[in-house]
């Protein structure tokens, strides 16, 4: 069991007047994260950035170790970055593609990922979903052949509480020699992740969402067995050694994907966020998030004119819905007027899935473990008011 009172006391953004349901966007950091970031910024103002960073060199090293512990991965397999998108791009651009090879994606692929494939002219095919809305492993098996270099798998989409299967996808892809990159930007921090069990070749995550870390932080895990097959598109003096006038030697591990310059305060804050989660217990956090989301879905489902839009048999902490006759942007604004924070997810963010389901936009609520039952019920009541006014 989580200590709910201690957690709420640790969260400055909770004052009893607002209901925060946007951890899928950018969550509320706990005091240890806030204190770590602000303290380092103050120290930089006192002695300069280089000296301040040198004083925290050991702590900076432990950030990578903490992320590795969270993922049950070797520390050498983790690279730190400024976002999940940067980490995803680092992996994809490092995969060697021979002429004629292509990529497979799911129907819930993120817009930034699809934009990259289209921008670079990388051919991709879309793996259909099954009747539940999750990626269909049987369809994937039919589509895999020797020309598939990579399966880009979104673990949890931005526009629903769906959780896609991972291990089955990995086994099918590996049997045909394809790599699997798991986009975990919406699952890291709310779903317990074990890369040893999942078997993915790459995994990307962000600090600002469910991990409750600072913006401008992210990480990449690369399975050690494939690291030497990947050639980063960008290298600097951190990722490679300048061994001669015309020679370099890239690092043998995932450190080749790191750049020397970073926001030191934010990176230390990411470490504090991961440590906080590890102390609470990822399994307990996942159960708490699922319980709160289930309560919210149940409450919304009981309101006339409200439709919960989450597909899938296995669902997480993202709850999406629409109100008949009221646009999602209006619902968001009306909830904000009632001090309930949610957001909207539009067709532009997950075009394939939203087109398939004929949805232009949905209202997205994402209750984290620090949200109380009373606050969830208050949010349900606010939606009922809006639905009743249509």
Automatic annotation (TrEMBL):
Cofactor(s) for this UniProt protein: pyridoxal 5'-phosphate
Aminotransferase class V domain location: 19-378
PTM sites of type N6-(pyridoxal phosphate)lysine: 209
Pathway of action: Amino-acid biosynthesis; ergothioneine biosynthesis
Keywords: Lyase, Pyridoxal phosphate, Transferase
EC number: 4.4.-.-
Catalytic activities: S-(hercyn-2-yl)-L-cysteine S-oxide + AH2 + H(+) = ergothioneine + pyruvate + A + NH4(+)
Pfam (any one): Aminotran_5
One MF annotation (Gene Ontology) recorded for this entry: transferase activity
GO BP annotations listed: ergothioneine biosynthetic process
Enzyme class, spelled out: lyase
Described function: Probably catalyzes the conversion of hercynylcysteine sulfoxide to ergothioneine.
Family that this chain belongs to: Belongs to the class-V pyridoxal-phosphate-dependent aminotransferase family. EgtE subfamily.
Protein name: Probable hercynylcysteine sulfoxide lyase
Organism of derivation: Halosaccharopolyspora lacisalsi
Lineage: Bacteria, Bacillati, Actinomycetota, Actinomycetes, Pseudonocardiales
